[in-house]
Amino acid sequence: MKAMVLALLLTALLAAQPAGLLLRNGKVWTGEEITTAVAIRGNRIAATGPAALRLSARRTIDLKGRLALPGFNDAHIHFLDGALGLTRLDLTGICTLPAIQKAIADYAQAHPTAPWITGGGWEYTCFPNLRMPTKEDIDAVVSDRPVFLDAYDGHSGWANSKALRIGEVESTPFSGFGEVVKGADGKPTGFLKEAAKRLVSRHIPETARAEQLAALEAGLRLAARLGITSIQNAARGAADIEVFEQYRKTKKLTLRASFALSANGKTDFASLLALREKYKGPDLAIRSVKFFLDGVIESHTAAMLENYSDGTNSPGPTALEPADFAAAVRLADKAGWQIYTHAIGDRAVRLSLDAYEAARQANGTRDSRHRIEHIEVIHSDDVPRFARLGVLPVMQPIHAYPSTVEVWSRAVGEKRLPLSFPWASIAQTGARLTFSSDWPASISLDPIRGIHNAVNRMTIDGKPPGGWLPAQRVSLEAALRAYTQAGAYASFEEGIKGKLLPGMLADIVVLSGDPFALPAPDMHQLKVDHTIFDGQIIYSRN
Prior knowledge:
alpha/beta, Diaminopimelate Epimerase, Chain A, domain 1, globular, disordered N terminus
């Protein structure tokens, strides 16, 4: 009886304490409903709606009709790579060969002492007659230093002659997942697919830790400006998490990060458990391992059930032998890991689902929350398997941005287009649709751009007018859930974030308007006015 009385007194005492911050006079999407206000005490949500308005507060934000919602959660990202790219040559959005060449030349001139010119962001659709880039394209503007530039998806590389010579690409045999593309003369063209990129990239000088830390800080500032308060870093986790760990020894992280470690058919998953035990906090955690099962459609390295439709007499390879992959999945599942699998082609998606199902049969059912990343094409027979198996579809709406898909669509072919980037088809089965950016392997990190394309499937200038494959559009609320609470569920954190409910972490975004009141084609016009992380305002646009 005494304990109950004390608990009631403590609750009453806390309720009487002022909130640190009150957001009112607008709309608050809690993830469950739209209400009028939200109050923050410390780093937690104290109350919402009328209960929040009854609390006094040390500081108030007048929403003025704007919408507040849970902080965006980017559920598949390569954050440090993206942050490092902020200081390197960025070709994002530059889409004619002369403009690309000018950008390369300008960057080289501005960095005369850089031993290598590196960066990326170029798109497959931006070269004459949809051909792939060549070494001569770069040699025309920079030939005295090595240049190596990643495609926007990170799966192809573009080198000049100097870089090819340093990598001894012409004389080094390559076997494995990928290709050294050669011309009619039998010599490398400068276009390298998948693992063949390593022939050149391994010669690029290692980035100093000081530069990594500075880049991380720049990336954190950018994420705050875009309302991103949580990320799930897809692979290379052990290397990246050390940078995050060193950074937070002197400065506060302004997002929460969960990491997946790279895995393959030879990984000893039990040996990684100590690392998982070391990092399991709400700000830095390792929970997962990630496999690469295929590549991308544009370079014909995604694994398809049938041949590509643009004259390529091949369905594309798998990065791992299916039997080796399935065996590794069983071992990882038995060791208690959550598994990410990169699978873009419909064959890779099927093999992933098959492996997860076989692991469940071998090891028993548990709350594994295994994931498949990307899922750009799927066979209709496999659509309902996500919900049935509890597998999470982690997808990137920005990858289906209509201006980037010409080469992609030609390779997929008309027959497979209806189930291309199949967000709606998978979500309609009850699967937990989860959204992300894949940054820097994307044309934009901005969740608002992703939401715009998820609900419209059209460019920000309205082309094509009816949307690209509009049957796969999703509702605004579905897109918001996929960028917030679904991401929290995907990292086993739905009890502390992803919604604005009392007791949950106070990670909040205030938009410049109310997307529920906007015409869908105008969604991209929204901006982030405030980002609140851990109960503190970390970004204000004005």
